[in-house]
TrEMBL record, chain A:
Residues 199-261 form the Metaxin glutathione S-transferase domain. The keyword Zinc-finger does not apply. This is Metaxin-2. It comes from Esox lucius. CDD domains: GST_C_Metaxin2, GST_N_Metaxin2. Keywords: Acetylation, Membrane, Mitochondrion, Mitochondrion outer membrane, Protein transport, Transport. Involved in transport of proteins into the mitochondrion. Interacts with MTX1/metaxin-1. Associates with the mitochondrial contact site and cristae organizing system (MICOS) complex, composed of at least MICOS10/MIC10, CHCHD3/MIC19, CHCHD6/MIC25, APOOL/MIC27, IMMT/MIC60, APOO/MIC23/MIC26 and QIL1/MIC13. This complex was also known under the names MINOS or MitOS complex. The MICOS complex associates with mitochondrial outer membrane proteins SAMM50, MTX1 and MTX2 (together described as components of the mitochondrial outer membrane sorting assembly machinery (SAM) complex) and DNAJC11, mitochondrial inner membrane protein TMEM11 and with HSPA9. One of its GO terms (cellular component) is SAM complex. The lineage of its organism: Eukaryota, Metazoa, Chordata, Craniata, Vertebrata. It is found in: Mitochondrion outer membrane. InterPro entries: Glutathione-S-Trfase_C_sf, Glutathione_S-Trfase, Metaxin_GST, Mito_Protein_Transport_Metaxin, Sam37/metaxin_N. Belongs to the metaxin family. GO terms for biological process: mitochondrion organization; protein transport. Residues 53-174 form the Mitochondrial outer membrane transport complex Sam37/metaxin N-terminal domain.
TrEMBL record, chain B:
CDD domains: GST_C_Metaxin1_3 (cd03212). The gene is MTX3. Residues 2-80 form the Mitochondrial outer membrane transport complex Sam37/metaxin N-terminal domain. This is Metaxin 3. Residues 211-245 are annotated as: Disordered. It comes from the Eukaryota. Residues 112-175 form the Metaxin glutathione S-transferase domain. It comes from Esox lucius. One of its GO terms (biological process) is protein transport.
Length: 285, 245
């Protein structure tokens, strides 16, 4: 069943796909509250995909575009680039935040029009920082750390499939991610160094944000959506240890930033969502 | 031993060598962000230009590296680098494991050109990225751009694109002149002295051979001596030359 998060406007509808088991109606995989522990075996989505997915949703909401999230176990294979999330509009399919931003810009919705060239360069640089550090760290923790991989990532990733496909797919995905980590030079790092990198990245983001409500002027841009997606997911996801979320929590302006975006853009869905919708999900309050 | 640029910088910072001392917190954050941008957008295209593009690799990069490595490493090391570069590009940039390098080329080059444009916009008319003194971001950008600027690549759309961005070229040249030209081991002045010496030697040899030719003509034209083989002997002080008995 799909989670209806759409806000009815006259603009075209966007359908957003994330790889969650088709039985689940939970958007966030997080297990922060006790009541959702029983969902572990059924939910498929992992931290990194959830973060990217949330970033795209935040961006689309910031553009005031109605978005419908639906879950498919084979979303990775449906996507044109092999990565989730992807957006299905009419007869076009666009995946990943970068191309989605360009796509919406071509349709006339853009959040970064007001920026001058230097600011746009900064924005792109910070987006790359988040991708380079936070996303890679998330992937590392999920798949290269043996504890997390065995207890959380592999069971979740393979949950919709039966034996032996679940083993094959989970190990294949793990092998792929480890190869990628080797290629970018993260394979030699240990967990402490990864946490340190996350901390430095959060420090940079915190210093850039300062006391402003958003990263640029008073209006959110795609950078805000991306940072929100990653930080919120990190904060509300329970892994084998809490150290990752503790690193983020130590920066209070980032916490306030996440709360602010959650309040502004995700609270209005409470009226229209189903009973097990987002409003019952974990929040920062 | 310390490897990797980031670790080397950390090591130097612990020894109290820090070019970023004057930067504000926000500028430090900007530094991290721009370095991430370079790594993500520019490095794949640079790797491709130097290591994967067959013309560049075979005519410039491979001979360059091979000339500095002893046997048998000169066969193994460049090939290993090239394979690492190719796998890195394919793993991080291609959308599917079945794609080949040609399909990814367009994407990485357009991203790299955009990255160069962004750097150019950020630099503007200044000499360095932050204020009047160089910092670690300047070092990183220089490290990425200087080979592209100076290497004589037979085919490189990226180099052509860089030629259109004058402020980045000026940035590279400025750092080269300010920090690399007074290096004692730099090849530039050595080359000049070698050339000058070579020139003087050539002139001396020419003078001597002229003298010897004159001597030879004199001897030939004098009738009491048998003509002998005109061997140019390198001893002009002996004016009569040695004649066979």
């Amino acid at each position: 069943m799909t989670l209806m998060l759409s806000v009815p406007l006259t603009l075209s509808n966007f359908s957003c796909y994330s790889p969650v088991c088709i039985d689940s109606s939970h958007f966030i995989m997080s297990l922060a509250a006790e009541a959702f522990v029983s969902q572990i075996a059924e939910d498929q989505i992992l931290l990194s995909d959830c973060a990217s997915s949330l970033a795209v949703q935040a961006y689309l909401r910031m553009c005031n575009l109605p978005v419908q999230v639906s879950y498919r176990p084979n979303a990775e294979y449906m996507s044109p680039s092999g990565k989730v999330p992807f957006v299905h509009v009419g007869n076009q399919v666009v995946s990943e935040l970068g191309p989605i931003v360009q796509f919406t810009k071509a349709k006339g919705h853009s959040l970064s029009d007001g920026l001058d060239d230097v600011q746009r360069a900064e924005m792109k640089a910070y987006m790359e920082l988040v991708n380079n550090m936070l996303l890679t760290a998330e992937l590392y923790i999920q798949w290269c750390d043996d504890n997390t991989a065995a207890e959380i990532s592999r069971p979740r990733y393979s949950s919709p499939y039966s034996w032996p496909l679940n083993h094959i797919l989970a190990y294949q995905k793990q092998w792929e991610v480890r190869r990628k980590m080797t290629a970018v030079g993260w394979a030699g790092k240990n967990l402490e160094q990864v946490y340190e990198d996350v901390s430095q990245c959060c420090q940079a983001l915190s210093q850039r944000l300062g006391t402003q409500p958003y990263f640029f002027n008073k209006q959110p841009t795609e950078l805000d959506a991306l940072v929100f997606g990653h930080l919120f997911t990190i904060l509300t996801t329970r892994l084998t240890s809490d150290e990752l979320s503790e690193k983020v929590k130590s920066y209070s302006n980032l916490l306030a930033f996440c709360r602010r975006i959650e309040q502004s853009y995700f609270e209005d869905s409470q009226a229209g969502s189903s009973s097990r919708g987002y409003s019952k999900g974990p929040s920062l309050f | 031993t310390v490897t990797e640029p980031a670790q080397i910088l950390n090591y130097l910072r612990k020894l109290r060598f820090n070019a970023d001392y004057e930067l504000s917190a926000r500028q430090g954050a900007d530094t991290m962000a721009y370095i991430a941008l370079l790594e993500e957008k520019l490095r794949p295209a640079l790797l491709h230009t130097f290591w994967v593009d067959t013309e560049n690799y075979s005519s410039l990069t491979r001979p360059w590296f091979a000339s500095r490595s002893p046997f048998p490493l000169n066969f193994l090391v460049p090939g290993h680098h090239a394979n690492t570069a190719l796998s890195r590009i394919l793993l991080t940039k291609s959308d599917s494991p079945l794609h080949t390098i040609t399909e990814v080329e367009g994407k990485i080059y357009s991203e790299a050109k955009e990255c160069l444009n962004l750097l150019s916009h950020r630099l503007g008319t200044a000499y360095y990225f932050f204020g009047n003194t160089p910092c670690s971001l300047d070092a990183f950008v220089f490290g990425f751009l200087a080979p592209l600027h100076k290497a004589s690549l037979p085919s490189s759309p990226l180099q052509n694109h860089l030629r259109q961005l004058e402020n980045l070229q000026r940035f590279c040249d400025h750092i080269l002149n300010a920090h690399f030209s007074s290096h004692p081991g730099s090849p530039q002045p050595v080359q000049e002295t070698v050339d000058a010496n070579l020139q003087k030697l050539t002139q001396l040899v020419n003078k001597e051979s002229n003298l010897i030719e004159k001597m030879d003509d004199n001897l030939r034209s004098s009738p009491q001596h048998k003509p002998f083989r005109a061997d140019p002997r390198p001893s002009p002080s002996n004016s009569t030359g040695s004649t066979p008995a």
